[in-house]
């Protein structure tokens, strides 16, 4: 005779089995287990029932506050109606981020770091532009290009501005980033956003998502991008696909002495500078002489500098580490301060990519590029690989990095040589010897879809200097031969440029 306990167990089993048995009678061939799962509600209602994200204390409010949509809906289709996927994008940041950060978004939208007007205008003027643009968004679209300037504009919009805040960057492990405000203030790593915790003070990895390759930023960590050609990416690697976190393998050289000391980018480049607190494109208030030539009684050049025992101490913003600032006492500083900049002697190496060739090709004849399939652009590399080895004969195209539209033609890139050994020297606006790089040593070509060469290795106007001053972030000791460097550098005369 069954006991009371055994009857209870039988009833419980029947209650569990009844939904399964009922499901078998539906006649829709759907597994009973799947029907049971369909009735299980999410662990949490609303957006976070599907998107489990952690918010920082300053942004701990409903997802729909920034993303719109319907946070109370019970289906994805309903919840996503009217949703803003990228609320920090430049097109949205003013009316989303600006609700709470109106002053910051207004300043940032006018900052040179955001508009890139200096960089854009320097390239456009070198190829014939007579007027300046207020922002990269004002770069005209001429399709197909019929002038050298129109070709230059297409190059800027589709190949050069891949790092800018309107675009999320190439999906290499360490180059993808957010758009607008999120580019700096949301952490990305290994092709993924690392959460919804906004950071007030970005670490260097955020900066390097854009400032990699042979541009200032990567050199701070001693990285010099290798050549694109397979024959010159030595030493050769044994694996088929060597890691390329920034698009191209790099030579690991000596980092900047400030980086070795633990100084982050934001310790010298403040938010006020980067987000438009002052003249657009103004240099960092922290200069070599301002820190290392400081004397007691003089104003302290930045808020994160303290005076202790009549000497400056830098307080790092990320670790709050206190670093003494050594004072420049060598007599050579007084002897050469009006003749040469600090980097002319103290830069350990520099960027010397000479003969940068850029070809817009509207045909799919890629065989000559089989040794240059590494291009530092996944968009370009994928089309080269697919056409050369995958049997894909789709017409070449690239998207506009400002408005997201795809247009015909693929921009291919190569160099005559890439070197770092010899620091190039020229004169700055004050006539002092300084470090330079051939940033405008550009050669633009265009082959249309009929295979006709419309422009062949067009170069900047002769009145526009191809070699321009810059500040390499490769600082170290000047060494015993700095005088010989200044004497044998033979700096070239440069035409005075408008800021």
Q: How would you describe this protein?
A:
The protein is an alpha+beta fold and 499 residues long. It has helices at 4-24, 32-38, 64-67, 76-79, 98-108, 112-115, 117-126, 148-158, 182-185, 204-208, 257-260, 265-268, 271-274, 288-292, 331-336, 342-346, 378-389, 482-488, and strands at residues 188-189, 192-193, 223-225, 250-252, 305-308, 311-315, 322-324, 352-361, 397-399, 406-408, 410-419, 425-427, 433-437, 442-447, 453-458, 468-469. The termini are far apart.
Distinct helical segment count:
18
**Low-confidence segments:** 1-42, 278-282, 492-499
Calculate the mean pLDDT score and round it.
86
Q: Given the helix and strand composition, which structural class is it?
A: alpha+beta
CA radius of gyration is: 29 Å
Q: Please give the order of strands in the largest beta sheet.
A: 11-8-14-15
Which outline best applies? globular
End-to-end Cα distance: 100 Å
| Biggest sheet character | 4 strands, mixed
**Tally of strands:** 16
Query: What percent strand?
Result: 5-15%
Share of residues in helices: 25-40%
Keywords:
alpha+beta, 4-stranded mixed sheet, 18 helices, 26% helix, globular
Short description:
The chain is built from 18 helices and 16 strands.
Topology:
Blueprint: H1 4-24, H2 32-38, H3 64-67, H4 76-79, H5 98-108, H6 112-115, H7 117-126, H8 148-158, H9 182-185, E1 188-189, E2 192-193, H10 204-208, E3 223-225, E4 250-252, H11 257-260, H12 265-268, H13 271-274, H14 288-292, E5 305-308, E6 311-315, E7 322-324, H15 331-336, H16 342-346, E8 352-361, H17 378-389, E9 397-399, E10 406-408, E11 410-419, E12 425-427, E13 433-437, E14 442-447, E15 453-458, E16 468-469, H18 482-488
Parallel strand pairs: 8-14
Antiparallel strand pairs: 1-2, 3-4, 5-6, 6-7, 8-11, 9-10, 12-13, 13-16, 14-15
Helix pairs in contact: 1-2
């Amino acid at each position: 005779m069954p006991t009371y306990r055994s009857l209870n167990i039988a009833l419980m089993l029947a209650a569990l089995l009844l939904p399964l048995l009922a499901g078998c009678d539906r006649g829709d061939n759907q597994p009973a287990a799947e029907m049971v799962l369909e009735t299980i509600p999410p662990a949490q209602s609303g957006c976070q029932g599907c998107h489990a994200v952690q918010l920082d204390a300053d942004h701990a409010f409903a997802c729909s506050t920034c993303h719109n949509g319907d946070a109370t809906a019970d289906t994805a289709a309903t919840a996503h109606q009217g949703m803003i996927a990228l609320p920090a994008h430049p097109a949205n940041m003013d009316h989303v981020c600006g609700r709470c950060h109106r002053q910051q978004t207004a300043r940032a939208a006018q900052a040179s770091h955001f508009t890139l007007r200096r960089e854009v205008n320097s390239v456009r003027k070198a190829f014939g532009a007579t007027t300046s643009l207020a922002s990269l968004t004002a770069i005209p679209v001429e399709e197909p290009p019929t002038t050298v300037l129109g070709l230059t504009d297409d190059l800027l919009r589709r190949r050069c501005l891949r790092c800018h805040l309107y675009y999320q960057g190439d999906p290499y492990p360490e180059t993808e980033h957010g758009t607008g405000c999120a580019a700096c203030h949301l952490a990305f790593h290994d092709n993924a956003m690392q959460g919804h915790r906004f950071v007030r003070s970005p670490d260097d990895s955020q900066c390097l998502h854009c400032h990699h390759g042979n541009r200032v930023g990567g050199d701070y960590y001693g990285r010099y991008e290798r050549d694109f050609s397979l024959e010159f990416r030595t030493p050769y690697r044994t694996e088929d696909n060597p890691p390329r976190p920034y698009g191209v393998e790099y030579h690991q050289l000596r980092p900047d002495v400030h980086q070795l000391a633990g100084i982050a980018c934001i310790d010298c480049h403040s938010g006020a500078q980067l987000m438009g607190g002052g003249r657009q494109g103004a240099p960092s208030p922290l200069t070599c002489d301002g820190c290392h030539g400081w004397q007691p009684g003089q104003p302290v050049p930045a808020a994160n500098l303290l005076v202790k025992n009549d000497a400056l101490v830098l307080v790092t913003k990320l670790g709050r580490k206190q670093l003494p600032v050594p004072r420049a006492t060598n007599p050579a500083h007084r002897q050469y301060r009006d003749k040469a900049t600090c980097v002319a002697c103290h830069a350990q190496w520099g960027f010397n990519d000479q003969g940068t060739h850029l070809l817009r090709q509207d045909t799919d004849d890629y065989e000559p590029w089989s040794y240059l399939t590494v291009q530092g652009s996944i968009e370009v590399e994928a089309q080269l690989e697919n056409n050369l080895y995958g049997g894909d004969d789709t017409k070449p195209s690239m998207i506009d990095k400002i408005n997201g539209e795809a247009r015909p033609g693929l921009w291919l890139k190569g160099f005559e040589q890439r070197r770092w050994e010899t620091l190039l020297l020229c004169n700055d606006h004050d006539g002092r010897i300084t470090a330079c790089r051939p940033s405008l040593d550009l050669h633009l070509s265009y082959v249309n879809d009929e295979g006709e060469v419309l422009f062949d290795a067009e170069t900047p106007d002769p009145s526009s200097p191809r070699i321009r001053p810059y500040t390499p972030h490769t600082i170290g000791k000047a060494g015993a031969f700095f005088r010989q460097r200044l004497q044998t550098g033979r700096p070239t005369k440069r035409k005075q440029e408008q800021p």
